[in-house]
Structure prediction request, 410 residues.
Amino acid sequence: MSAREIRLLRTKFIAVSMASVFLAMLFIAATVSSATFLISRLSVNRTLEILIDSAEELDAPERSFRFTFQELFSPDYQRNAWFVLSYDEDGTLVSFHTNSQDSGEVESVQEAGQTLLTGRRSNGLYRGYYFKRASTDGDGQRLAFLDSSMIISSTLRTVYLALILCSLGLVLTYFLMRKLSGRMVRHEIENALRQKQFITNASHELKTPLAVIRANTEMVELSQGESEWTQSTLRQVDRLSGLIGNLVMIARTQEQEDRSDLREIDAAKAVNESVDPYELLASQSGLTILRDIDPSVRLPADESKLRQLTAILIDNAVKYCDEKGTISVSLSRPRGGGLVLEVGNDYAAGENVDYMRFFDRFYREDSSHNIDKGGYGIGLSIAESICRQYGGSISASWKDGAISFRCVMR
Prediction:
């Protein structure tokens, strides 16, 4: 994993963690608020029952209507004006008890009582008051009203506090996770950079002894003639040289490319020209290449990277296509922009293959078969690095006897 991929993984980890913490806090806040509301409603219902049962014993103490922020968050704050209205069997008001001294409020409650007296509702919320209706001795009725501002203020107080605490918790969590995750991934980033530097340095150092081995082997052939041993040595030297080149290529493709100065390229032309050299090789092997390339596809990119990606996939398709099979090359433009490159080939034996591992470096589904074909097991890994460098992805799938590689670049 490159340093850029580690940083990206860190960003995703922080984002997922913050989303999880936010949902957890939201659930806690909603649960606490709902529980507060439910408990308050139960308290209101109990208070209304007491008012109904004890109407004649109630007094009417003086009551203040101040409603300030300090009172809202005061532990002993209550705004619970109550009213008890008793009616005879004819619906005439016979008694009225309240702790409110607001004449306008008293008149409003009396009007509400007349309305509710003939209605079907026996309890609930009406005009900002919780009410309860009950029958009395002698076919009369009694209505109790309780100011709903108490439960509303209690619920709002809980919601406000929950939102404030959740916001502070999210901010604190973000800074803590950013700080701690930075320390956690710093060591991994340093290891990735050291690994990349090691590959580059080792590749450079290996070139000299390989060049000496090739030169000495060629001198032996000049003096003693070619033999199967010298030819085997030269083949292994070529193989090691190619492997070293691919390792350097992987290290370079993992670098984040500055796309601000990239010019828009003709992607269709680059793909077509990359496929052309393989037409002859495919025909000699009895294979057919079919193209479906949108000529209008363009993309700000390094043309050499797109050619390299196409060459890797076509070379892989030619090597592993079934005898007298067909290779398909498709290039299209998705709705969101960029391009989609798909290369497929007939591969009857691919039904039970783990295609997710195809992009692992040096992975071989069939080691002996792969070596015979001249592969290193890292071509698809290079292709994956190129796609990721351009904010895309690569995937492999098998269906109806054919394998297909789908590359997305943005």
Summary: Residues 60-67, 367-372 have pLDDT under 50 and may be disordered.
